[in-house]
Amino acid sequence: MKYPRPRQTGFTLIEVLVASAIGLASMGLLLSLFAGSLDRMSRVEMQSQRLIVEKEIVGRLSLINPAQTRSGKGNLGKWAYVWRSQPLTEFRETSAYFLSESAATEVALFTISIRLSTANKKPVDIELQRLGWRT
Cα–Cα distances in Å, from 92 out to 7, 8, 80, 106? Predict the structure, then answer.
């Protein structure tokens, strides 16, 4: 009498190797995507920090009369900046409508050039225009 052969259960070695190769390939892809997203996230964080610094510097320079103070420099955390103002127009008298006892009598438009830099990044140049005055 012939006895039936028991059926094999489990995986063969080739099936295990193929599954391992597929798993390793998908893990490699996921790790490269994760590393790329970390790199992008650090770049976005650096850019947002730079924008905050730029806003703070522009706020500081808004308190300065570019007709009286033509250049300067400063630090803000790890950022250093140098600025210079150049007149864009000649001084013009303001109309009597805008005058008060302490108001400026002559105004001119100035371009303020700002160079923002840190130790390990290339410098960033910013330009803005502001009115300067003299009494």
Answer: 101, 98, 34, 5
Domain spans of the chain, in order of start: 13-134
Mean pLDDT of 43-72: 91
| pLDDT tens digit sequence for 40-54 | 998 899 889 889 988
Comparison of pLDDT for 135 and 100, the residue scoring more: 135
Q: What backbone phi and psi angles, to 5 degrees, belong to 113?
A: -100, 130
Question: Pick from 111, 121, 103, 112: which is nearest to 50 by CA?
Answer: 121
- Residue-by-residue DSSP string for 25-64: HHHHHHHHHHHHHHHHHHHHHHHHHHHHHHHHHHHHHTTS
Q: Which of 83, 62, 86, 54 minimizes the C-alpha distance to 71?
A: 83
What is the structure's pLDDT at 100?
61
Is pLDDT at 68 greater than 60 in this prediction?
Answer: yes
**What does each C-alpha distance from 116 to 12, 37, 111 come to in angstroms?**
64, 27, 16
